[in-house]
Amino acid sequence: MYRREVDPKSSPLAAFAVQLRSSREARGWIQDELGERMGYSGTHISAVETCRRSPSRDFAQAADAALGTGATFDVMWQAIQDTVLLEGFPEYLQHEMKAVRLRTFELGVIPGVFQTPGYAGALARADVERGSITPELATERVALLAKRQKRLLRHRDAPLVYAVLDESCVRRVVGGRDVMANQLDHLVSVSTLPSVTLQLVPYALGHLRPLLLPAVLLTMQDRTLVGYTESASRGYLERDDGLLDRWERAYDQLQAGALSPASSRDLISDVRREFQ
């Protein structure tokens, strides 16, 4: 039987199509079997897998439920709609949901995994005001973030999360004083979870900070590493062993120069009092 090949790099729609086929085949299901589990015909599945039909939101969520892929297809559907997520980020999310350890370094903004709805909503509204996304997509972005947080922080198979935040993350005001006060309270709270280690890099470290850009290191179940970083316009997955080794060494140095988790909570609490 003729099999139409689709290049996943050509568009978000193509990436969705290839991921759907890959996930289905990993289960050993034919298109009719997946369609039956999702409530769609095998012909419909085939049309999506070959980019002859664009998936709906309901289709994406049904695929996640049938294939046990978390929010993978829901997130990829968002990428098809427009610019809710940076190009490259949906591919990163596929790895994130399978990771056993996540190490992140962030500058200037609280990482998404720790953001409150008020803080995330303020960032999304700012993108609406700039004309980057629509209000509807802003709402979807915040909802998808909540799904990621549940998987990373509350799920029984949640990974170990190590976060090193530049001091600017807790001092930059997002959404106003009340939003920041709630965000800092939440940050202190999640930092006490058994699976979370949170440290702050004080301004005093200055130019000695070994990482100059935000970065994420994922450790997979087979102990392989996947890296991720972003430019202003897109995200980049990194699999080069040599580069990832340098990222790991830099991250280790960053943790060594950061405040301890207890001292980090003290600094966050000090900043929090400024919003009383």
UniProtKB/TrEMBL annotation:
Domain HTH cro/C1-type: 20-73
InterPro entries: Cro/C1-type_HTH, DUF5753, Lambda_DNA-bd_dom_sf
Lineage: superkingdom: Bacteria
Entry keyword set: DNA-binding
Keyword Metal-binding appears in the UniProt entry: no
Pfam families referenced in this protein's UniProt entry, alphabetically: DUF5753 (PF19054), HTH_31 (PF13560)
UniProt keyword annotation of DNA-binding present: yes
Signal peptide: none
Gene Ontology MF term list: DNA binding
Protein name, UniProt field: Putative DNA-binding protein
